[in-house]
Design a protein that fits this description.
Chain lengths: 319, 308
Amino acid sequence: MADTRNVDTEARQRSTVENVFRPKTRGLWSDAWRRLRQNRAATAGAIYIVLICLFALLAPFIAPDNPNFASPTAQTFTPPFWIAGHDPRYLLGTDELARDELSRLIYGARVSMAVGVIPTVIITIIGTIVGLSAGWAGGWIDDLMMRLVDAVYAFPAFLFFIVLATVFRDTQFGHLLGGLVLLFTAFAVVGWTDMARLVRSQVLNVKQRDYIEASRAIGASPWRIVLKHVLPNSLAPIIIAIAFSVPTYILAEASLSFLGLGVQASVPSWGEMVFDSFPAILSQSEFVLMPSILIATIMIAFTFLGDGLRDALDPRLTK
Amino acid sequence: MVRFVVRRVLSAIPVLWFVITVTFGLMHAAPGGPWDALGVRKRLDPSLEQAFNHAYGLDKPLYEQYLLYLNNVIHLNFGTSFQQQGTSTISVIFTGFPYSAMIGLLGFLFAVVLGLPIGVLAAVKRNTWADYSSLFVATIGYAIPNFVIGVFLLVIFGVKLGWVSILWEGHWQNYVLPSVVLGLGPAAFLARLTRATMLDEIQHDYVRTARAKGLRAGAVIFRHVVRNAMIPVVTIMGPTIAALVTGTIIIEEVFNVPGMGHLYITSISARDYPVIMGVTLLYAVFIIVGNMLVDITYGLIDPRIKGS
């Protein structure tokens, strides 16, 4: 009993000495979290993204009107509140079909967030599995998978989206969830390759480390090594890739919708709202600008957050 | 070097084959054919449709059409357009190509002329207001999608100020906005990357040595640091060229340019198979050649890579 207490106090004394003379040691994740919070641009980006997510989730409660309802009493292109002649019922005016612009913008957040997040989840799962198994197994499995990845990578992605969107737009499949399922599929078919490449290179890197050799030597099963060592050590680059993947798909949807090849006309999406009001740009530029500003700001927010995450999670880059 | 180039050129062939096969498969998987959209949604007379299908070989089994197309492509025969009957695909594409090429080239020049100096300046004046403001502008410019910037500039200069025409009139003024918008994103990207690689290079020992032997600061930066910092920047030129090439599709829609991108969109909705295939292939060739040129320049700039 006395013995243990002695050891205990000794340890405490030593730790006090260490606390005084040495900076507090932190783990990778808490350190990264602290650095992320100190990054003002990244924090602002994250707050803005949370706000847009709330709009997307709570759209039916926040939106003053049905986004697809063209009121028979409303006029088309009622100006927004800062322009003379606006209608107090419609804060941001009405669009070319006399639908409430504000409600459409709020519902548009749903499309953007869904189209950014869902394909990212799919490609992260597929890409991680393929990358892990190709990198870990090596040999012909690796060769085969990487040939496939190379082939998909060589196809110009945006051209593929355009062809796929046009071809399947008028089919039953193209109408699922207002065309969203088609977009999810198109993005996932191309996107998983980036993630697979990334995970594979991480695995190849981690695989050669001594601690992997050590755990193999003490008899850990391959599954245990992959799940306990390889995956956690690849997590930081995966998180960074996720943060940059979400805005990529938000942009792809907005671009396709701007070409008239995105979601179906019944679904309010920011890109489609630009497309719809674009012919009236000379007289009604406000209606082109409003959704454009939302696309620009969400992209800026994600870039700030992505940059912040990269700086926070990759200490080698911050000097 | 010659072997390296030859090998790179040969490796492009399976990629092009893959692009042809996927595009061919997708187009023919779609319901509806090229004659549906003729006129105002009018169905063709069945016998006429049959005659058309026969004339263009669309009545053959799919695999036969596919093999025939591959064979034609090998002989550089891309068929004739369905939409503009009697006109070869190549001449249809070349009605739009000059506009797109001009905008793409000007956009690339704009990106390099703007992006590289800003990146170098930001790195040399590290942690000053010049650095912070250029980095901030570059981040914003990189983050905002090019068609959105295009819309903003169109509203400012076309609608509010009335300096440029919204419609395509073919003057040189019409080229300014599309090229600038196309080049802005790559410029911002280049600036960010150049700054990062410059900062990385500046810390190296050879820079201290060069300074120690009394070289002027300008000579150190331009003769030593910039040269080495360009290596990673050059590698990113490939994806930049790809972004410029596909970027023109959407930019042309914003500025009403009658270029290849516009042609692409219209021929896709009209199911003009030969033109879709031709344009897709041409875009893919541009991207592949862009990447190839980058690999070759890379070998020229950095002797360490040569021959590998």
